[in-house]
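Human: My hope is that you can spare some time for a protein that puzzles me. I am handing you a single protein, as its sequence and its fold in token form. Could you go through the record with me and say what the backbone is doing? Take your time, and here it is.
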Amino acid sequence: MADSTTPMDTPTAAEVASIASPINLILLSLLILLAYMRLRPAPPVTLPKGPPPTVFRTFTPPELKPFNGENNMPVYLAVRGRVFDVTSGRNFYGPGGPYENFAGRDASRGLASGSFDEDMLTKNLEGPLDTLEGLGPEEMDALRGWEERFSEKYLVVGKLVAVGIEGTG
């Protein structure tokens, strides 16, 4: 076998182009990367922190007054004796909003008459609640519409009673 030009120890060209070619190594690396991306553990899902629980309570007008959105307080307003948490509508009912006069107050008469004036609010917070006397049927219908809208959109957090009524605080 002396006429053979290739010795037995030298690999042929077909053997040299083996699995270890650069393109195969790149493809293998991509395959491993894709498998890792697909099979790696997902980060734990963290739920957003919910709002603090709100306890239904009884308010008097002076107790309701601080809930006007100032000093990072929630925004509450009362309609026909029901106190609503309107904090999510702070841009309307909080400081600087068009309904800011109603924040922390009984808004019944003002909403019924469609007036945002200060004189629609009860001046004496220590006195009796507004009985809504003097409002006509159209104004009472408007007030019921507002109350229904608030009931659908906002959480009732309490009831409004006059100062001196038992069960306050």
Summary: Residues 112 and 135 are 8 Å apart (CA to CA). The beta strands are 57-59, 76-79, 82-85, 155-160. The chain has a mean pLDDT of 86.
